[in-house]
Amino acid sequence: MTSPTSAPELFVAAVSSQIGDLVDIGDAVAAGHCAPALARSTAMQSAATSEDVAPPDLAASAAEKALKHSGIDPESIGLLLHANFTYQGHDIWPAASYVQRRTGARRALALEIRQASNGGMAALQIAANYLGSSSLDHALITTGDRFVQPHFDRWRSDPGTVYGDGGTALILGTEGFAQLIAIHSRSEPELERMHRGDDPFARTSLQYRTPVNLDLLKRQYISRAGSGTTVARVSRGLLDVVAAALDDSGLTIDDVAHVVVPNFGRRRLEAGFLTPLGIPIEKTLWEWTRTVGHLGPGDQIAGLDHLLRTRTVAEGDHCLMLGVGAGFSWTCAILRFTDTCRANGARLDRS
């Protein structure tokens, strides 16, 4: 999907996150929640947990901070996209409308994005397309998830990844501190069964097992599709979307100063992303991601927020943001920091 950002130019105007309390992985191992082998293979230190705050409230809190610190009028938001992975707290209920009410974005079209871990980045693509073909000033993207029992076991439902709870928010507009110079997405529907397995369609959630067991579903899929074919399809999707974004921006991977990738465990991160793309781990936010865990669709926005709060970015620096989600879908965006005062000053104004 070609980037629409040539007319008008689009910028990240604000970014924020609301991360849960950190639980040390050593304590989780001692309590029998996390297998010692998983702790070793992922090299995780902790995971963010939110026992009392629901996902839409995590998202709305992040959005309120983004609006406050940017000074953007909520009524200038023309599109609100809320991406999520897990149960939002009520049945047959639009969480995006709740976030809209909380934030005061009353004039916005509020919609929910359900594309698993690529939801936040897919929302960025949709928002860019929407703003690029309209006269709207701003789009607000939020994510909010918590990975809790009985539906999901953050330590065991998906071996290779430890899941964390949090909400994020990003405002895209025609002014800001980082220009969106390229964004591309692609899908590979032949992989959708990897998260469906051999189960027939259920009448209700959790009908076949509790909690979700993604490893079982993956093994069932691979037994039919074959490991080689599966790996080739996943790799092709990743490499194609990154190549398209780099080509559109006129950059090579070596030109990119900062890389924000999914918050996976060390082994999965290196095998699935860093090695195929030739990215040194020092360009990523690994030392932070290993403390919070995989936030579902919120990894990239939270990562950008962390980058701005903890590192100095220089004018002209490029940041590559990469998402992947069940289905499968991939999205790659490239930002160019254009206003270093606003970007580096963001850290001075965060709670």
From TrEMBL:
It comes from the Bacteria. Residues 246-336 form the Beta-ketoacyl-[acyl-carrier-protein] synthase III C-terminal domain. Keywords: Acyltransferase, Transferase. InterPro entries: ACP_syn_III_C, ACP_syn_III_N, Thiolase-like. The lineage of its organism: Bacteria, Bacillati, Actinomycetota, Actinomycetes, Mycobacteriales. SUPFAM superfamilies: Thiolase-like. CDD domains: init_cond_enzymes (cd00827). Pfam families: ACP_syn_III (PF08545), ACP_syn_III_C (PF08541). This is 3-oxoacyl-[acyl-carrier-protein] synthase-3. GO terms for biological process: fatty acid biosynthetic process; secondary metabolite biosynthetic process. PANTHER family: 3-OXOACYL-[ACYL-CARRIER-PROTEIN] SYNTHASE 3, BETA-KETOACYL-[ACYL-CARRIER-PROTEIN] SYNTHASE III. Residues 112-187 form the Beta-ketoacyl-[acyl-carrier-protein] synthase III N-terminal domain. GO terms for molecular function: 3-oxoacyl-[acyl-carrier-protein] synthase activity.
